[in-house]
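ok so I'm stuck.
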Amino acid sequence: MRKWISKLIPLIMIFILTSFSYNIIAPKIGTVALPKTLKISKPTEVLYPKYKTAIENDDEMLSVNPPFLGDSYNAFKEALAFKESQGDYFVTNTLGYVGKYQFGAETLQLLGVTNVTAFLSNPILQEKVFYTNLSRNKWILRRDIKRFAGRKIAGLEITESGILAAAHLAGPGNVKKFLRSRGTHTVQDAYGSSIVYYMKIFAGYDVSAVKAVRNPRI
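replied:
not stuck anymore, here's the structure
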């Protein structure tokens, strides 16, 4: 009898202990669908600049990696914006030029924008105005682009993007005079940037996405 009880007691103890144990339940792991805007369906541009740009500063040439990609239209506009305002949509310079691309009130009115304050606070509108102005300049300079792109003037290689950048700086009329005078007629802005300088540092971009339009407006 005692032998039977001695065998039964360990079994009873095991039963009692296991009855107080916790059940371990694996946590449920939910799944979250990735938004379509974050899914990659095609190759994207490499996140480093294709070229380095030489920029003059106090008579020294500094090698700068600008904040843009490759030689696309986006690269062109972001490089130009960085030179104009360091890409700041909300800045006004000492001469009253405003926004990321530094437009004057007269140019804005010409393109259909009459409220400078509203323009300065609207990045989407600023991008539309920049493209519209390029379209206008490309129409005005279309014959000069066809005639001079790929040629050299005073040792400077002329490109379509360089012409459009210079027109943004000094206006298409002054760029025409520069090209047709073979470089003898040139101008610069109040900060010392010249047509030659803009044609040089903004050469070689692909601006074929810009369509030449006569008298475009926003």
